Amino acid sequence: MIERDVTIKDVAREANVSIATVSRVVNGNYIVSEDLKERVFAAIKSLNYVPNSIARSLKIDHTLTIGLIVSDISNSYFTALARSAEDIIMKKGYNLIVCSTDDKKEKEASYLKLLLEKKVDGILLNTTGKNDDLITEISKNIPVGLCSRKIKNPEFIGDFVEVDNLNGAYTLTKHLLSLGHRKIAVINGQKHISSSVERYNGFLKAIEESGIETPETNPYHYHGNFNSPDSGESGVEYLLSLPQPPTAVITMNNELALGVIRYTMRHGIKVPDELSICSFGQITNSELMLIQPTYVTMDPASMGTTLSEMVIERISHKQNIPSREVRYTTTLVHGNAVSPIG
């Protein structure tokens, strides 16, 4: 025998009140006496009643939910972004669903399909860069805002918020060059990700302006994973094993920087005397660390705010807005992990 779902009528009967009273208690949009509230809540608990918010939302053609998909919610960058996004989204009357993909294609696709099934009103996405066609199709029907990573499909409709990757990496490299460094290494993220490409191009721009020849296969360029400090360790281990090891290393995000610092401390490498370290983005609480890389700023809180506002605006205008892009400028902040050569 199939059990039928408990309805609002069942709750009203159990509490000996009207259906309207149950609705008012559940929705909290009318003043109801404490006695009636207690009776209704007791009936709800007794019958294990779950209000059908999905059914209600379908009547008004939206669910007041927005999905946020990031590569690694444990990264302080995305934690700050998610928190600021949540603040804006809640103030606008929406709820936020947060998903973390570990930069896995299948996991991202699964979460995207889940959010579609939940009929979310919009999606904020830090993509893996491996589901471009799926995301493009979704963007034609649901407002999508991309954070930090672009997709290559030109038919994508939506917004994009990011820092100025090229100039940020260019600034770090020029700083090291001004201090006499010529053997400058880069520990980067995944090759296919737009931010990885842009940051390396910023590095190359500064190097080429200085007259240093950089072969197509640059031995001082190591590709790892943006979300893994272990990639920072592996990268610096490889680089320092080269016949002519670098005098300085630029890590292209904060997680990679943590790995480099961990390696130097474990192996007794003196920073900055033996190796200078720069980072694209700040390490959380770096002021409490013995080794503090020089870095260029990223502003994930502002980015989360901007992206949320753009997607909510896109929702309210039913997608009748051209695709937009916002880039935040970076600022160089000096640490104690960089010294001049000689």
What's the topology here?
Layout: H1 8-15, H2 19-27, H3 34-47, H4 53-59, E1 65-70, H5 76-91, E2 95-100, H6 105-117, E3 122-125, H7 132-139, E4 144-147, E5 159-163, H8 165-178, E6 184-188, H9 194-209, E7 221-223, H10 229-240, E8 248-251, H11 254-266, E9 276-280, E10 294-296, H12 300-316, E11 324-328, E12 332-333
Parallel strand pairs: 1-2, 1-3, 3-4, 4-5, 5-11, 6-7, 6-8, 8-9, 9-10
Antiparallel strand pairs: 10-12
Q: What name does CATH use for the topology of the largest domain?
A: Rossmann fold
Percent helix: 40-55%
Along the chain, the helix and strand elements come as HHHHEHEHEHEEHEHEHEHEEHEE
The CATH H-level superfamily of the largest domain is Response regulator
Low-confidence stretches: 54-60
The CA-CA distance between the termini, in Å, is: 84 Å
Structural class: alpha/beta
Query: What is the topology, as strand order, of the major beta sheet?
Result: 2-1-3-4-5-11
- Relative strand content: 15-25%
Apparent shape: elongated
**Number of separate helices:** 12
Instruction: Using the coordinates above, name the CATH class of the largest domain.
Output: Alpha Beta
